[in-house]
Every structure is written in C-alpha cells, then in structure tokens.
Amino acid sequence: MPLPTLFFLVIGIGIAAALASKDALRMSVRPVLLSGSFATFLGFLLLVAIPISAYFYVFYGDWFLLYLSDVRKIPSALALLGFVLEGLVGVLGFVLGASLMRRQVVIGYWLIGSCIALSVLVFGVFHSRVWKVGNYTQFHYGFALKSYASSGMLLSGLLMTAILGAATTYLIFRLKYGERGHR
Fold first, then answer.
1. In the prediction, which pLDDT does 180 show?
2. DSSP element (H, E) containing 170
3. I need a labelling partner for 136 at 20 to 30 A (CA). Which of 7, 18, 104, 178 fits?
4. Under a CB-based contact definition with an 8 Å cutoff, are residues 87 and 45 in contact?
5. Other C-beta atoms within 10 Å of 44: how many?
6. For residue 10, what are the contacts with CB-CB under 8 A and spacing of at least 6?
7. What is the domain range of residue 152?
8. Are 49 and 168 in contact (CB under 8 A)?
9. Which has the closest alpha carbon to 93: 32, 173, 23, 175?
10. What angle do CA 56, 60, 166 make, to 5 degrees?
C-alpha cells in the first residue's frame, strides 16, 4: 500500500472507530482522547497501521512514496516524523468521528466511504507509479522495473491488506460490541 492509501485508510478507520464506540463515548464523562475507546484505537494505530507503513517503507520505500523521493536520501528522523504524522491523521479521524457521532452520523459514514474510495483511487491516479516496482533511479530512468504482479509486492500487498482488514474488523467489532456485557 502506498503512503497516500494508508493515510486515507487510517483517517477512515479513525472515524469508523469513533462511530463504532459512540455508545461508550456518549456515556463517558471523560474527554474523547482519554476514553478507553480511544486507547483501543491508539493500540490499533501503534500495533497494526504504523507497522504496516514501516514495513512498506523499509522494504519498498521508493514505491511506498510513489517514487517522489529517494528513501536513501531521507533522514531517518524525517521518516519517523512521517510515521508520527500518520498516527496524528488517525487521531484526527477519531476526533472527527467522535464529533460527528452526536448529530451527524450519516456524514460520518459518508466520510468513511469517501476515505475508502480515495484510498483505492490512489491506484488509479498514480497507476504509472503503483504498478511498477523498483527503486527511485530505476523508475526515473525507466530500466529494470518489475510489474506489481510479478514482484514480491503482490503477495506483500495482499498479506498486509488482509492483516489490516482483519485487525480493522476486530477493532470495530470490539468497540461496538465489546463492552456490552460489562454495563
């Protein structure tokens, strides 16, 4: 998954997580960012979403950044800042979802759908960059590139998508139904 795809997915998952935990958030007197639901979502970000980004950055970095920069020239502190930014985008999604849960849940669902659509649209808009795998130099000089399907990217992409999908499903289920027996 390229970086823009993950950014759109993380914000959409943040909104979905807040909407899934709307009952718990409504009943709580704590601020949204101190709630148990947010802590669960933060665990998801730290243990699933950001590590998936780190995987693609480490093993397919130039592709992950859509060949806009050579990862060998990016200082590690700047890369770390990018992962922190991804986490903050997820937090923004959760806060946005929490603000929408009171009156405009339909808008929240529309935003989730839009985030999913935009994450898929990245593959169409940047098709010349996404469907070819190599490093920065290979891409910009047009040699020794492999197709997405014939490289290890296909299997990696499917595996990481499955992990992200399963973890997201568990997260939403846990936030929506997980605490019902504890009331």
1. 56
2. helix 153-177
3. 7
4. yes
5. 24
6. 45, 49, 86, 89, 90, 93
7. 3-182
8. no
9. 32
10. 30
The total domain count for the chain is 1
Given this model, what pLDDT does residue 142 score?
A: 85
DSSP secondary structure letter of residue 47:
I
Tell me the pLDDT band of 102, cut-offs 50, 70 and 90.
confident
Q: Greatest CA span in the chain, whole angstroms?
A: 62
Dihedral angle, C-alpha 55, 57, 58, 62, nearest 10 °? 140
Rounded to an integer, what distance in angstroms lies between the CA atom of residue 30 and that of residue 1? 35
CA–CA separation, 4 vs 129, rounded Å? 13
124 residue type, one letter: G
Note whether 84 and 91 are within 8 A (CB).
no
Distance of alpha carbon 52 from alpha carbon 83, whole angstroms = 10
